[in-house]
Amino acid sequence: MTDLNPEVIHTWLADFASQVHDNAAWLTDLDRAIGDADHGSNLDRGMRAVAALDASTFSDSAAYLKKAGMTLVSTVGGASGPLYGTFFLRVGAALPADGPITASQWADAFEAGLTGIVQRGRAEVGDKTMVDALTPAVTAFRGAGDNVAAAWQAAASASAEGRDATVPLVARKGRASYLGERSAGHQDPGASSVTLLIESAARTLG
Amino acid sequence: MKKLINDVENVVLDSLHGLELAHGDLVRVDYENRVVLRKDAPKQGKVGLVSGGGSGHEPMHGGFVGMGMLDAACPGEVFTSPVPDQMMAADEAVNGGAGVLHIVKNYTGDVMNFDMAAEMAAAESGVRVESVVVDDDVAVQDSLYTAGRRGVGLTVLMEKIVGAGAEAGRDLDTLVALAKKVNGQGRSMGMALTSCTVPAAGKPTFDLGEDEMEVGIGIHGEPGRERRKLASAREVAEMLVEPILGDLDYTGSPVIAMVNGMGGTPLLELFIMYNEVYRILEKHGVTIARNLVGNYITSLEMAGTSVTLLKADDDLLKLWDAPVLTPGLRWGA
Questions:
Q1: Of A79, A178, A179, the CB nearest to B112
Q2: Would you list the DSSP string of B213-230?
Q3: Phi first, then psi: what are they for B49, rounded to 5°?
Q4: Which of B10, B78, B80 to mutate to test the interface with A (most CBs of A within 10 A)?
Q5: Hey, what CATH class is A6-204 in?
Q6: What element of type H or E holds B72?
Q7: Residue A184: CB atoms within 10 Å
Q8: Whose CA, among A8, A80, A128, B58, lies 20 to 30 Å from A58?
Q9: CB distance from A94 to chain B under 8 Å?
Q10: With respect to CATH, is domain B11-184 assigned 3.20.20.190?
């Protein structure tokens, strides 16, 4: 089991940054269909700034995640900046002190991040947003037992299923909601990018 | 993509440099914080009026900074909300001791970022900040279960009227009430003949056939509520005006009407639209007391138009007529 420290968190977020970069055009295309064609480029700009942080200069993981969250809030703009920023701020605040960390402690922090996103965006499951991927991911993580690596794997699978399930939904929050019925038949960009984040966690936090 | 740009990454920055060089007598730009400021900000004893949003809607908002309108505008990336750091810097720069009012268009990103700015400002500085959200777009059914109506054309009228109120020395609470009154009495509806291309995306946001149009659009190049067969200016005017009149009773009050171009529509066509809008309103017994025809809240190079109607009274007309001197709107000064 991997101990919690800023280097580990940085490995996770740097992996996510490279995933966002490689998939930026795809995320922007998804957003073009039901939004305003900027999700990939905006998140890429923010995550490049996060990936450029020097993990060795932070006293602990919480401090690193706070900085990562504020960096996203300050560089991304749109709805994604406050939502991703709030997620990392809340995860950081809910994590235990650096050192050994259990699956249950990770689950608490992960859930705190989700709660922050729900409060900030006021979205519920079924609104066709990132919450549709994150909510089942948190549930699957909690139900996966004591092995952190297995729990992140379960969360990544559940997140991908939740993402795929956004396709037929009619959006009720965010810019896609203005399309009404026309938003059905498209995969939600936010649920897609947040699944990349959980998949990165499954690769790096086991 | 064919655009007069140097580098996709620097579109907003290069444009801000041009704005400042062209209108240095009215505005200055804080490049570090990315804020367009009234040249003489802060004005002691005056409420600071701050707005902002994605770029690509020019002249809104940076072009509305100046005497009688905004004290500061925070430009985001193209069609992307600005970030809280910009708003906090703007609040600091325009605070003349009478507090600051944010005018926020009801788009999820704008609302969240202005919310975060207000939370952080409350925690970090003593500046009193109030916010009013504009949500005038009748194309969106207002509902508790959605993001609600978008903030569109009425924003221009609100910035002018509340700006005049601030210039006249009205206090923060009075201006909040004034802004809410304008929001309650104004409605808009828009349509598009073409899509537009976000520089960072490089291709049009949606495809639209030669014989098609989008009705019920916002201001970010997104598709509208429905796609219809192309129609005449007269029919389009009806499609835009009737839902507005169906939502609010405009009879018996002087009306301020804006026929706005989305960026790629010639004035020739906008005046054809104004003629039609005027005649429809006349038929309904609605009188236009003041008007604005031109490109004021745009969606890059999109062709199309939006109609905004504000039910006014003596006070609103007085504030509308008050002098204004900004890069994008000027009279009486």
A1: A79
A2: EEES--SSS---SEEEE-
A3: -110, 120
A4: B80
A5: mainly alpha
A6: strand B72-78
A7: 16
A8: A80
A9: no
A10: no
Q: Which positions in chain A touch B123 (Cβ < 8 Å)?
A: none
Dihedrals φ, ψ of B81, to 5°?
Answer: -55, 145
Domain range annotation of chain B: 11-184, 186-320
The CATH fold of domain B186-320: Hypothetical Protein Tm841; Chain: A;domain 3 (3.30.1180)
Selecting from B140, B220, B225 the residue whose C-beta is nearest the C-beta of A36 gives: B220
Q: State both tokens at B13.
A: 């920055």
Q: DSSP label at A170? A: P
Does A30 touch chain B if contact means CB atoms closer than 8 Å? no
Distance CA B213, CA A178 (A): 16
B325 class by beta-carbon count within 10 Å (0-12 exposed, 13-18 middle, 19+ buried) = middle
DSSP B13: H
Give tens-digit pLDDT for A57-114: 999 999 999 999 999 999 998 899 999 999 999 999 999 999 999 999 999 999 999 9
- Whole-number Å distance between alpha carbons of B103 and B11: 24
Q: Which tens digit of pLDDT belongs to each residue from B162-218?
A: 999 999 999 999 999 999 999 999 999 999 999 999 998 898 988 899 999 999 999
Residue pair B254/B313 in contact by the 8 Å Cβ criterion = yes
Interface size A-B, in CB pairs within 8 Å, comes to 104
**pTM (2 decimals)?**
0.88
- Beta bridge partners of residue B53, listed in sequence order: B75
Q: Which residue has the tokens 């006349």?
A: B282
> Are the beta carbons of B222 and A41 separated by less than 8 Å?
no
A8-28 pLDDT tens trace: 999 999 999 999 999 999 999
To 10 degrees, what angle do helices A80-94 and A39-51 make?
Answer: 40
Chain A partners of B79 at a C-beta cutoff of 8 Å?
A: 36-38
Residue ranges per structural domain of chain A: 6-204
